[in-house]
């Protein structure tokens, strides 16, 4: 059942090593069918009803200029709404803390999208609906309204507000959302449940849930999906391996067999140690980025033994905990 495995997984594994949360989210929702289901589940009902979801198309990555690419993953979709184009800007937020300036960041992105549209297609401009998918780890506690970034005196609000941009962004905060109960699309239920479990460090519990949830048919309709979920999980938790995941799937012999097939494939190719090494390197670079220190070059990390990588990671983790943990 693993025919064509190398071709579809090698690039995905490389992306997981550097930014596992971003890579998984982008991989799942750059699929128009998955994105269509996501938007229809989480946009306002009136917008969902007005859109022709058969027209949903992913826009080229080059549409948003490279200087706007930061520590997040974003996708831009075009869809027909009431016989007019609308752009859906989907941003995956994976910062270690909630960003109160998110409306300002989004305004910058939206303006750039509209500028490029004006340069290539002219007027009229399409509405751009920004949507933030927040994976955590903290609750989203700041306003989604751009105007709330200002502290206007009450007696001047009426005078100044007409001159201020007035928009808010849509938001799905996974820290407050229970995919098992609140998501009705089976495929999205799996994707969002895994993203939530990854931030909560409850991956074994996720796979136990998966084995009990009768999702076999949904997952096996897209065989690569389950394998990508497995690879995402082992890149997130360096203490997790495919064999332990397989044991947690005892309630689903079919999925358990799939997991063991993947584990065997990795062992045969000698990639199990490589995954562990790449995971350490990716986590070290991520912590260095969070701490604002110069990232160690990938080739330097590749030359180190696992023990040296572990020691470097522990050192950075201690710095991170001292700075950010309460």
Can you tell me about this structure?
By secondary structure, this protein is an alpha/beta fold. The protein is built from 16 helices and 5 strands. The chain folds into 3 domains: 31-176, no CATH class; 189-272, no CATH class; 273-324, no CATH class. 56% of the residues lie in helices and 12% in strands. It has a 5-stranded mixed sheet, with helices on both faces. Strand 4, helix 6 (154-160) and strand 5 form a beta-alpha-beta unit. Helix 8 runs antiparallel to helix 9 and helix 9 (203-212) packs across helix 12. Residues 1-5 and 65-72 have low confidence and may be disordered.
Q: Beta-strand level of the residues, as a percent range? A: 5-15%
Widest sheet, order of strands: 1-2-3-4-5
The average pLDDT is 84
Classify the helix fraction into a percent range: 55-70%
What is the straight-line distance between the termini?
47 Å
Calculate Rg over CA atoms: 21 Å
The main sheet comes to: 5 strands, mixed
Quick recap:
By secondary structure, the protein is an alpha/beta fold.
Chart the SSEs and their pairings.
Elements: H1 5-18, H2 20-29, H3 32-42, H4 45-50, E1 51-58, E2 73-81, E3 84-93, H5 102-121, E4 128-134, H6 154-160, E5 170-173, H7 179-182, H8 186-200, H9 203-212, H10 216-220, H11 223-236, H12 242-248, H13 253-268, H14 272-291, H15 298-302, H16 306-324
Parallel strand pairs: 3-4, 4-5
Antiparallel strand pairs: 1-2, 2-3
Features:
326 residues; 3 domains; 16 helices; five-stranded mixed beta sheet; alpha/beta
